[in-house]
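Why do we bother with holo predictions? Because pocket geometry can differ from the apo form. Keep that in mind while you read this record for magnesium ion.
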Amino acid sequence: YADLAMYKAKEKGRNNYQFFTNAMNEEILTKSLLENDLRKALSNNELEVYYQPQLDVDTDKVIATEALLRWHHPEKGFVSPMEFIPIAEETGLIMPIGEWVLEEACKQTKKWRNQGHDLTVSVNLSNVQLMDNRIVEKIKDILLKIKLEPQYLTLEITESTAITSLKDTHCKLKQLQLFGVNIALDDFGTGYSSLSYLSSLPINIVKIDKSFINDITDKTKKEIVKSVSNIAHSIGLKVVAEGIEEEEQFTVIQSLGIEMIQGYYLSRPLPKEEMEKKFLNHLNK
Ligand code: C2E
Ligand code: MG
Ligand code: MG
Ligand code: MG
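The structure, written out:
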């Protein structure tokens, strides 16, 4: 697209052209530098899986965690997944990285379960990973190798994943479901899918995006979340509310019969040691 951008910039005159190419060069440079570093991140042990607890509203127990990837860059320090996941997806690096996250998260969960903690784990699955023809086999192999029963794994897909190359994606998700893995629709409400569309998707869980939770104390927002959750329940799906930060939001969610919450109100994502210290020792056994 560099050519197109230059053409457009040229049309606007020389100054714009200069400005535009400089800005673009910088962007491309930053990206390719980051891309180079990302290639080495895995072998340099710069990646770490953090865990954010999910609370069962009824029992007040942590029953699940979401695995969230962290990159400790040697010079830049912490780089956000919002920045590097898209690069990993563009370059295909998401394949080895995504597999590593899945394996790490499953191993850790197996370990916690062996210690007597009744936990499941959610792992984000990129639509690029779902384009891999061997993805279903790869996921099954990891679970079999680690000996984690598939019902203790949830794969989170986004709405955009759910609607791209529909038939193929649905088929793979269905195969995973038949194997026993749970599928969650992440960030629900930010994409294009309608409520009725939910019923045609091979999913078990809906995660209502934090943008709806932000002002849930507002009456209209509350009604929206209420109807989403009612419809989800009526077609047999479980509901998770994401991004709960305050007690008031938690109270509203509780009153709507939503079964699980995740958010800073409970905890930020934590390294495994801190997860153990704060949530697992003495608790949940
Ligand atoms: P996500 O899957 O929707 O994960 C939830 C994000 O919301 C996380 O951001 C989490 O830290 C943040 N969050 C949780 N509770 C709160 C809250 O109460 N308030 C606010 N403001 N934020 C909250 P994070 O860890 O920065 O990850 C961002 C996104 O990057 C994830 O969104 C996911 O789409 C992607 N991502 C992270 N790890 C992976 C991975 O291993 N694989 C793939 N494919 N994507 C990943
Ligand atoms: Mg997620
Ligand atoms: Mg989300
Ligand atoms: Mg997200």
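The mean pLDDT is 90.
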